[in-house]
Amino acid sequence: xxxxxxxxQRSGLSYVYKLPNLPQDSRIIPDYLDxxxxxxxxxxxxxxxxxxxxxxCITYRQLQDQSVQLAAGLIKTGLKVGECVLLIAPNCxxxxxxxxxxxxxxxxxxxQKFGSPATDAVEMAKSTGCSAVIVCAFGSSALYGESxxxxxxxxxxxxxxxxxxxxxxxxxxxxxxxxxxxxxRPNELASAEEIHTVFxxxxxxxxxxxxxxxMTSGSTGKPKVVLYNHFQFINVLRASCFTLPNVDGARYxxxxxxxxxxxxxxxxxxxxFSGITLVFLDPEISVRxxxxxxxxxxxxxxxxxxxxxMAYIMYDLIHADAIxxxxxxxxxxxxxxxxxxxxxxxxxxxxxxxxxxxxxTYGCTEFGPFxxxxxxxxxxxxxVSFNCLxxxxxxxxxxxxxxxxxxxxxxxxxxxxxGPHLFERYVTNEEGTKAACxxxxxxxxxxxxxxxxxxxxxxxxxMSDAIKRxxxxxxxxxxxxxxxxxxxxxxxxxxxxxxxxxxQELCACVILTHSPGSSEERLDTIKEWTSxxxxxxxxxxxxxxxxxxxxxxFPKTANGKTSRRDLTKIAAETYGC
Length: 577
Description:
The chain is α/β, with parallel strands linked by helices and 577 residues long. The chain has three domains: 29-205, Rossmann fold (3-Layer(aba) Sandwich); 231-464, Rossmann fold (3-Layer(aba) Sandwich); 466-575, ANL, C-terminal domain (GMP Synthetase, Chain A, domain 3), CATH 3.30.300. 31% of the residues lie in helices and 25% in strands. It is built from 18 helices and 27 strands. A 14-stranded mixed sheet has the order 1-18-19-21-22-17-16-15-14-13-11-12-2-3. Helix 2 (60-76) packs across helix 3, helix 12 packs across helix 13 (311-319) and helix 13 (311-319) crosses helix 14.
């Protein structure tokens, strides 16, 4: 009987497993810091540029000393392994010390965005079972810090009439609260007894004890609280190092808020894990002010070899005035994430900074960075593999149809992931955890991708972003890639708006370049040009959007991504039926 199935057909299915590139061990995060202190105690661990000017630094030895002192103080408050503490703070050196101190004693940090309403912050602390809150607020934000503490003190404390524990940094601690400065005691070292106690507790913390919880961006609904233990997050950091070549010992710039996934996974926790010097600033400088010249100067003055650059920083650097002595001559590698790179912006960046190896990484809060691609020259952006990303080591990936079955290579389907860096669970959201993962521990990303014959993936769209017009699914990225080529288009996002006849119609949300002419006239020109690029398809309809709207800036999610949900709402209110 002749075989009717050839085994090599299996290779045509969308599945890949990348082998680990490093051995596993049972260390926890502060173990890595203590090892790095032995290697280079006087190396700068972090350099901070605040909004008001100047800068401050902390060495590896100072980070170890201060984190041990703070850990000793936290132990005296009665905090124990496994308890949770809410941390709400801006980017600052104290943030990093708090991260390391809590990790030493097995206290899980719940990260809350700085600037969140006091009631929201306290509700998060209560819903996640926090035993205490740590609030850092400096200068003009002191009143904000006080408002959080006051709201927190209204929370009943089980079995005690005392107010719940609050630790204040940068503003005065009122009665019943503790001062961060008093716990750290910057002008004196911890006693031998305190050091012994801290390391005794640290030795009892294990790799599967909880480390931290991060909030998702909320781009697909209400933000979820994503819990990681030490082992899982260390594997996230391994993947991060894969996307940042030669990062060990690098001077690395990252402006992202530390409470965001990319600020932790590709930022502060790389200090103990990889021995980097993290150069960071107040995000208001890079986001609100858009000061590309200052960022470029910081990169040069701090002799940064690596930089994390969101798309808007790349834009600011491209358009910053030329100063010969302040290029990016020392930066060897720049990494971008958050959303797919646009070919035109990538080409402009590489043309202006030809010595920089540019990479992009693709990840999510629940799994960390899991795929990447690098570009070494402008010509790479015209290659068929542009935006086709290689999976990180120790990662399994598959692409499935709506029935959960593997699709063939180069077929669109949902991306599922599995590996040791998969998060533990959503805090206080058991149903959400069950919905996010299959019984076989595959995480359902909600992203539509294709996988090529080499096991690389290309992002197509969020499942929730797909537009169904007249029974045909349209993926916005295929329209956006064409419109972005028009010289008057700086950025573009295509969304769906309600339509009585076709259910949905396409609307292009456009940020125009700085060129002469009225917005209305330029939009009309772009619309006419776009119509020429998209002849009618098999369904008789063109992919050219019916509507165009001009924006000065796009709304952002809590984690800094372009908010398609808000753009869809604006477009629907403007043109929807």
